[in-house]
Amino acid sequence: MKILMVDADSVNGFPNLALMKLSAYHKGKGDKVDLIVGVPEVAPLFEYDHTYISCIFYQNKDRVMAYFNQFEDQKVWAGGSGLNMKKTLPTYVEHLMPDYTLYRTGFSMGFTSRGCIRKCRFCDVPEKEGKIHDHAPISEFHHPKHKKVVLLDNNFLASPRWQDTLQYIIDHDLKVNFCQGLDIRRMTRMRAKFLHKVQYYNWTFSRRGLHFAFDHPSHHHSVENGLKILNDEGIRPYRCMFYVLVGFNTTPEQDMYRIQLLKKLGAKPFVMIYNRNKDHELRRLARWVNGRFHEFLPYDTFKLEGEHHEVHTRDML
Questions:
Q1: CATH number at residue 44
Q2: Bridge partners of 37?
Q3: pLDDT digits (tens, 9 = 90+) for 6-64
């Protein structure tokens, strides 16, 4: 059989886990698998026996559905959070070793747990996956030839097997990226001791670092306490980057408070604008923080000097 995989979202290089598992399933049956990254305007001229379309991001839904509707009588399966929050892979596919050759990745990736203990109103995970629960041992998706692994757990530090997973990473001398970030409110000395022993990296594995979130000012005690615990166990604050959610349920004053507190504590802030809010002031704040202008230029000065100063100073970074 000839199988087509269409990845609507991964134009920036992040592979689609569901498609890799479906590819493993079909290649295991001797089928030929082709991959298209991005959504073409026109469906293939020749017929495939089966086509899978994955759409993770809602903003790609309209293009995906326009493409989907061109297939007429062909067998087409379309899924992903951008289309259907409840659609999942069959169990016999979900727990296969992904076909990493589909994207020629040099790392393994997967979930050891699904769901989350939080019920953040801006997040789809509670609706899609429910309460946190065990999913799979890391050995299920870690390819023996890979020395890097990306963990996709939504709240890894709340995972039932977080300790076993970290021990596996340590024992196999792996570099790891916690793709969805870690929950600073779950930090304890034991967790910090384990994290200090692992080789943690950003998702491109180009630099060391851990990622957390500071979604609301009410979490400030957890942020301060968590950073102190990490520092005491050997993980310095400058290794920690915090996503600062703006444009959801906080004021500009609360946004600046979180940014300045992180700077005071020695951690790195990174502004995340909720749902791609087009508010000009939020976008300017994000440029000031994420472009690292905050390291040498007060925000009021940045606003006064505007885009001219931004373009002029960008070469200094």
A1: 3.40.50.2300
A2: 7
A3: 999 876 678 999 999 999 999 999 999 999 998 888 887 678 889 999 998 888 888 88
For residue 24, tell me if it sits in a domain: yes
Measuring CA to CA, which residue among 220, 284, 285 is closest to residue 256? 285
Ordered DSSP codes for 237-254: GGGEEEEEEESSS--HHH
Give the pLDDT confidence of 213-243 residue by residue, as tens digits.
Answer: 999 999 999 999 999 999 999 999 999 999 9
Give the total number of structural domains in the chain.
1
Task: Please write down the HEC assignment for all residues of 212-234.
Answer: EECCCHHHHHHHHHHHHHHHHCC
Burial class (CB in 10 A: 0-12, 13-18, 19+), 157: buried
Q: Which spans in 95-241 are helix H? A: 125-129, 162-171, 189-197, 220-232
Say whether 288 sits in a helix, a strand or coil: helix
**Domain, as residue range, for 61:** 1-100
Which of 47, 146, 141 shows the shortest CA–CA distance to 99? 141
pTM, two decimals, is: 0.90
Q: How many CB atoms lie within 10 A of CB 159?
A: 25
